[in-house]
Amino acid sequence: MLLKSIFAAAALMSAAFAAPSQEKRQSKLKWFGINESGAEFGEKNFTGVYGKEFIWYDFKAIDQSIAQGMNMFRLNFLMERLTPKTLTGAFDPAYLGNLTEQVKYITGKGKYAMIQPHNYGRFYGNIITDTAGFKTWWQNVAAIYKDNDLVVFDTNNEYHDMDQQLVFNLNQAAIDGVRAAGAKKQYITPEGNSWTGAWTWVSSGNGASLINLKDPENKLIYQMHQYLDTDGSGTSANCVSATIFKERLQAATKWLKDNKKQGVIGEFAAGNNAQCISALKDGLSYLQQNSDVWWGAIWWAAGPWWGDYIYNMEPSTANPAWTTILPAIKSYFV
Ligand SMILES: *[C@@H]1O[C@H](CO)[C@@H](O)[C@H](O)[C@H]1NC(C)=O
Ligand SMILES: *[C@@H]1O[C@H](CO)[C@@H](O)[C@H](O)[C@H]1NC(C)=O
Ligand SMILES: *[C@@H]1O[C@H](CO)[C@@H](O)[C@H](O)[C@H]1NC(C)=O
């Protein structure tokens, strides 16, 4: 999303998990999650202070989301707060401590935790061009989580307005860094340019470029995002039509199938109204019918500080996404 800079969160649907090869034969979607958002808040203030500019996620809320069937939590955070000096510099122990505490809590419940630098391919506001430094950053981060198979590595949130070859190179550097750390069992989700939109995956050139990414462990799950408002930015409670979700997934689905790749919708959301809920069900049903290539979908967003945000799925009777949308869509996942 264009506004993403503002928030995120995590929660998910769970099921007893079989080995990946067996999961593929099931028609229900494997991953149902939520963006846990808040640790990247105050993005204009790279330093920030815990509890003032940014916040970590509420374990009780995560438990409630797990109880609803969620099994994937996409943990938003900022690279500048994890390695404040340089890409290759030391970790901030408190920020890393909080991230690791979240990962341990979620994976300790048998659910997936997605490590997601919410950086748009930028560091301190500048497009990252130091691919070797980016590889080192990922190698350092992955070394911490290399023995936890329930961790998923998301190379970066929503590259945009960047040279396509650079987006390819950064994704490849991230993959190489993760594997060089000895993290061999974990899934990695590359993201594309153009805000990694599913609807523009092929037309933007992401497909033709990122198809050439190489993972020696063959565990890439291409991550795309999709909103249902007119400009696809996820800033409106209105949906274009009751079939727009499915329509915006079709070209990417064909690309995944033609190229024998796997994908996940790492962000999706829509407003609390009849047309949007119809569109959500139609699109999730489509993902389910194509679960040979689609792993699931991750709602945007939850987190303690979202307030009356239109898509707020933090567990609370005050949040229509929690009280109305979640019950309408969760059956597609578990
Ligand atoms: C999910 O979180 C990211 C990080 O805050 C944000 O950029 C993105 O816009 C969020 N998605 C939505 C729909 O807000
Ligand atoms: C950035 O955050 C720090 C710590 O809370 C605060 O003292 C400072 O005023 C903030 N700066 C801006 C520009 O918001
Ligand atoms: C989380 O961050 C806070 C604030 O910096 C810090 O006091 C606390 O020790 C951190 N928690 C962990 C588990 O590292």
Keywords for this structure?
334 residues; alpha/beta; TIM Barrel; nine-stranded mixed β-sheet; two-stranded antiparallel sheet; 10 helices; 11 strands; 33% helix; disordered N terminus; binds 2-acetamido-2-deoxy-beta-D-glucopyranose
What is the total tally of β strands? 11
Q: What is the overall silhouette?
A: globular
- Number of helical regions: 10
CATH superfamily: Glycosidases
The ordered string of helix (H) and strand (E) elements is: EHEHEHHEEEHEHEHEHEHEH
Oligomeric status: single chain
Sheet with most strands: 9 strands, mixed
Distance between the termini: 26 Å
Please give the share of residues in helix: 25-40%
Structural class per helix/strand content?
alpha/beta
CATH third-tier fold name:
TIM Barrel
What small-molecule ligands were found?
Answer: 2-acetamido-2-deoxy-beta-D-glucopyranose
Mean pLDDT value: 91
Q: Unreliable runs, pLDDT <50, ≥5 residues? A: 1-26
Number of domains: 1
Proportion of residues in β-strands: 15-25%
GO molecular function: cellulase activity
Protein name: cellulase
Domain Glycoside hydrolase family: 35-302
Signal peptide: 1-18
Can you summarize this structure?
33% of the residues lie in helices and 16% in strands.
What can you tell me about this protein's structure?
The chain is an alpha/beta fold. It has a single domain (2-332), classed as TIM Barrel, CATH 3.20.20. It has helices at residues 20-23, 59-67, 79-82, 93-108, 131-145, 164-180, 206-210, 244-258, 274-289, 320-329; strands spanning 9-13, 31-36, 72-77, 112-117, 122-123, 126-127, 151-154, 188-189, 222-227, 263-269, 294-302. The strands form two sheets. Strands 1, 2, 3, 4, 7, 8, 9, 10 and 11 form a nine-stranded mixed β-sheet that branches. Strands 5-6 form a two-stranded antiparallel sheet. α5 packs parallel to α6 (164-180) and α8 (244-258) runs parallel beside α9. The chain starts with 8 loop residues before the first strand and ends in a 5-residue tail after the last helix. The model is unreliable at 1-26 (pLDDT under 50). Belongs to the glycosyl hydrolase 5 (cellulase A) family. It catalyses: Endohydrolysis of (1->4)-beta-D-glucosidic linkages in cellulose, lichenin and cereal beta-D-glucans. Its EC number is 3.2.1.4. It comes from Ophiobolus disseminans. It is an enzyme of class 3 (hydrolase).
